[in-house]
């Protein structure tokens, strides 16, 4: 049976929350009877995205409050 997990891809300091947060991916790993298939990525999220969405300030694409800014690809 296939297995689904959230895996951390990257950890980075975020100025908006003043701490380190993770870029996570929801991955589906194939069943044991399909060993040659690579895992598939279903979705991405920030580990702190839900809290940022609710804090009332525009922040970034992962919180859904500022689609023009992605801290995980910024060059600061
Ligand atoms: S959702 Fe965006 S602003 Fe909030 S912690 Fe994650 S990267 Fe930073």
The DSSP helix count reads: 1
Helix percent reads under 10%
Mean pLDDT across the residues is 92
> Helix and strand succession?
EEEH
Main sheet overview: 3 strands, antiparallel
Query: Which spans have pLDDT < 50 for at least 5 consecutive residues?
Result: none
What does this structure look like?
There is one protein chain. The N and C termini lie far apart (42 Å). The protein is mostly beta strands and 76 residues long. A hairpin with a 4-residue loop joins strand 1 (3-14) and strand 2 (19-29). The protein has one domain (1-76). A three-stranded antiparallel β-sheet has the order 1-2-3, with no helix packed on it. 14% of the residues are buried. The model has no long low-confidence stretch (mean pLDDT 92). Helix content is 8%, strand content 39%. It is built from one helix and three strands.
Q: How would you summarize this macromolecular structure in one to three sentences?
A:
By secondary structure, the chain is mostly beta strands. It has one helix and three strands. The radius of gyration is 15 Å and the shape is elongated.
Key traits:
single chain; 76 residues; 1 helix; elongated; binds iron/sulfur cluster
List strands and helices in order, with pairings.
Blueprint: E1 3-14, E2 19-29, E3 40-46, H1 49-54
Antiparallel strand pairs: 1-2, 2-3
The structure holds iron/sulfur cluster (SF4).
């Amino acid at each position: 049976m296939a297995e689904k997990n959230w895996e951390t891809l990257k950890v980075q300091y975020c100025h908006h929350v003043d701490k380190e947060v993770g870029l996570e991916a929801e991955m589906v790993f194939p069943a044991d009877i399909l060993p040659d298939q690579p895992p598939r990525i279903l979705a991405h999220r920030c580990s702190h995205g839900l809290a940022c969405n609710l804090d009332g300030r525009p922040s970034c694409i992962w919180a859904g409050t500022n689609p023009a800014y992605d801290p995980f690809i910024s060059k600061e």
